[in-house]
Design goal:
The chain has ten helices and no strands. By secondary structure, it is an all-alpha fold. The termini are far apart.
Length: about 200
């Protein structure tokens, strides 16, 4: 086991050295892979700030995976101050570059819009997600927006519809919202019976 582990370490160091020797070329994929080496401590000591620097260089050169990774960095506040505006900008730039969106990217943009209270924009991105077969999180967020009248007209039945779809995907918050809806309905009907 020790020999295998030493061989892996040696291979990772060689790979890092190969990439480092190609760094001067400015190749965006090389810069991205160097970012990964520093991020993961692969063949070199782990250093998130150096990783971020390489990542940004690769993203600035239009390397799609690096652009998506930059969006994630800003979305989660990983190695930078959290900024949903910058996260959204990187995700949108990546989509514009390849003219293809992914469910994950559209969902992250929608979540950025919700956090920035741009609810109508969030609805647009969530509807794009629905066309991509959505997910429990997409349905939950649509239910949340309809339940609260954010970016759409308040509509409890439509909210319940989306919460049910999300609950089928085992989305816990959607299951909670369905329960809350029925408790509210039960409380309303009980109080009406008491006063009639």
């Amino acid at each position: 086991k020790t020999a295998v582990r030493e061989k892996k370490v040696e291979d990772r160091m060689k790979r890092y050295q190969e990439l480092k020797s190609k760094e001067a070329s400015g190749d965006r994929k090389v810069l991205y892979e160097l970012a990964l080496c520093y991020e993961q401590g692969d063949g070199v000591e782990k250093n998130r700030s150096i990783a971020f620097s390489y990542l940004k260089q690769a993203a600035d050169k239009g390397y799609y995976p690096a652009m998506i990774a930059m969006g994630h960095c800003y979305y989660y506040g990983d190695s930078v101050e959290q900024s949903f505006i910058k996260a959204k900008s990187w995700f949108k730039r990546a989509i514009e570059l390849v003219h293809i969106s992914s469910l994950e990217t559209e969902l992250l943009i929608a979540e950025c819009e919700i956090k920035e209270q741009n609810y109508e924009e969030a609805v647009k991105h969530l509807k794009i997600c629905k066309k991509m077969n959505g997910s429990g999180q997409v349905d939950y967020l649509l239910g949340y927006l309809y339940c609260n009248g954010l970016g759409v007209e308040l509509d409890e039945e439509t909210a319940l519809y989306y919460f049910r779809l999300a609950a089928k995907e085992k989305h816990e918050r959607a299951q909670f919202e369905i329960g809350r809806y029925y408790v509210k309905k039960y409380d309303e009907s009980s109080s009406q019976e008491m006063f009639h």
